[in-house]
């Protein structure tokens, strides 16, 4: 479904606009201001191209080949060649939303007026997005320095009418055919334009913005499932009191505690310690839920700050400055983005880890305070949720591996000219996997905690918890009963969490969660 039209100026864009274009097929327009800035910067590039002195990216080779001065008659071929040679990706196709974010963010930088790209090239980039033509981009090919080179090259190749692309109907076809069908003329690149289309952190930034969007929803969902587990374990909500979190004033921690307290308001299960197993305190996985989820929230806030700065940036090399200079720089290095991508993978792994510990506690009759083993209907005949926890544990274990930082690695390239790289694209790719796994982990906790609450006969859950349970059942997430084919139930729980159904059901009772 098409959303609003996004108008690009010279000062960057917003996360909401990136998400609208990437995920909701919003249309893109160039502002008059952007067209003027593009034309002005192009005049500077054309003037430099006419001079005998070599200028990097305008009249020279690239990378380690920058020492060669390129004659006028070879410059169009030079720009075509950099796109063709750099479109060297391998492996599976990258998701459509990632490619659309990549294309839109490259266009955002082009519109800044710092790249020297002609207005007609920028317009063609917008035309591709508006036509729903998505270049085929592959998993491997970016080191996160000198930009996301191979991924961006595959996009530029489509702009030239070469290579393969996906049409709006989802069919992959030769790009030239798709452009012709939509009345789009392939671009003929001139000085600097090939380089300008390749040299940015757009892929990793696009994936960061989408991960932040997903994680904001998942962190709220994790607060809900933590509250449901606390209820199911007959825990105490006293540890969520605002005055306790005020004396350790991390904002995320306070928000997570407030969310849990809102979900638990009116619960008839909290504080019912069992006579045969009195508890002075709940286990860490229950009692410290706000501290862990809160730290992740604060990490998200830092990542969002980095992303906002990157959205306001013009990442290219060389850049056209307002005073007419074209200067080389290192702004294409992806370290700022790569670090927070890795940081988020660490936070997501820890949130998944504490969620899994609560699930395991719900299933263990020695620690669940009166619940049946594995929440089974007839334990021994039924295995209940035993293997659902195995699946959750496997997901958590993979997330721990994915938390190993990509940005701590570097491998030299381009004959040692590009001898330190960020690996930000790799950090972004593994974070996408981690975010998907986190949704599944939270879904398993939801599956277990809602079943456990329903097994507490005679005790009434909080109104928000009851709303979550009712909505989950309506979404196909089954409640207590004999063993059944679990995989479809878990898939339904995953969709319910990932698509925001859980959050929407609870917020109807609590109001917006923080």
Automatic annotation (TrEMBL):
Residues joined by cross-link 5-imidazolinone (Ala-Gly): 145-147
Modified residues (2,3-didehydroalanine (Ser)): 146
Keyword Transport: no
Enzyme class: lyase
Pathway note: Amino-acid degradation; L-histidine degradation into L-glutamate; N-formimidoyl-L-glutamate from L-histidine: step 1/3
Keyword Cytoplasm: yes
Catalysed reaction, written as an equation: L-histidine = trans-urocanate + NH4(+)
Gene Ontology biological process terms, A to Z: cinnamic acid biosynthetic process; L-histidine catabolic process to glutamate and formamide; L-histidine catabolic process to glutamate and formate; protein homotetramerization
GO CC annotation, single: cytoplasm
Taxonomic superkingdom: Bacteria
PANTHER family attached to this UniProt entry: HISTIDINE AMMONIA-LYASE
Protein name: Histidine ammonia-lyase
Organism the protein comes from: Streptomyces indicus
